[in-house]
User: Fold this.
Amino acid sequence: MKFSGKNVLITGSSRGIGAEIAKVMASYGLKVWINYRNGEAEALNVKKAIEELGGVADVLGFDVSEESAFVDAIKKIVEADGGLSYLVNNAGITNDKLALRMSVDDFMSVIEANLKSAFMGCREALKTMSKARFGSVVNVASIVGESGNAGQTNYAASKGGMIAMNKSFALEGASRGIRFNTITPGFIATEMTEVLKEEVKAAFVSKIPLSRFGEAKEVADAVAFLLSDHASYITGETLKVNGGMYL
Ligand code: NAP
Assistant:
C-alpha cells in the first residue's frame, strides 16, 4: 500500500488491535509511535518486534483521557519528526453493566476513555495536520456503536458518538486536505473479548455470518487502507469489519 505521510501515532497500541495496527503500519515503512497507559513492558515488546523486522518505532506512555497529556504527546511527536501524518484513535475500554445498575461514574468512565480521548486526538491532529495541509485519521469505534448492546449503554454511547463526531471532523478537515474515517470492528479475538464466557462467545459466533471472531490483523489491514493514499477520496466514512454480523 502507498503512503505519502511519514509517521503515525496509534493510541492503545501496547496490545490487541492497536499493536497489530502498529506492526502493519511499520511494515509499510512508516515511523510508528506506540502508546500505552499501564503496559510499558508490552509496548516495548511491540517496539522490539517492529525493529526486528527492520521497522522504526518509539514508545510514548500517556493516558488518552487526560487533555494535557494528549496535547503534550502530539507536541513531542511534532518536535521529533517535524509533523504528524496519521493518527489512529484506538485506545478504548469497557465497563459493562445493565443500565439499571450503572452509575453515572460507570457511564462517564467509558465516555472519557473512548469518546473524549478521540475528540482530543482529532482536534490536536486537525491543528497540526492543517499546517501541512495533509493528514489522515482513523477512529476505531465498534459494531456496538451501530447496533447497541445490552449491558453496554456506556460503550455504545461512546462508540456511536465517535461515528457521528468523525463525520463532523471530516467536514471540518476536508478543505485542509485532512481525511477522517471510522472503522467499526465486530467481535475480534483480543484480551477485550477474551474475558467473555465460552457460552457467550459461542452465542455471538452463531450470529456472525462468517462464523468466527475476527483477527486483529484483519482490522489493522482495513485501518491501513483508510489511512493510505488508496483511500484518498474517502472521508467521513464508517467501514464495518464485522464478518457480516451487522449490515
Ligand atoms: P485491548 O486488548 O483491551 O487493548 C486496549 C489498549 O488500549 C491497550 O493498549 C491499553 O493500554 C490501551 N488503553 C486503554 N485505556 C487507555 C488510556 N486511557 N490511555 C492510553 N491507552 C489506553 O483492546 P482491543 O480489543 O485491542 O480494542 C482496541 C479498540 O478496538 C478499542 O477502542 C475497542 O473498543 C475497539 N474494539 C474492539 C473490539 C474487540 O472485539 N476486541 C470490537 C470492536 C471495537 P494499557 O494496557 O496500557 O492500559
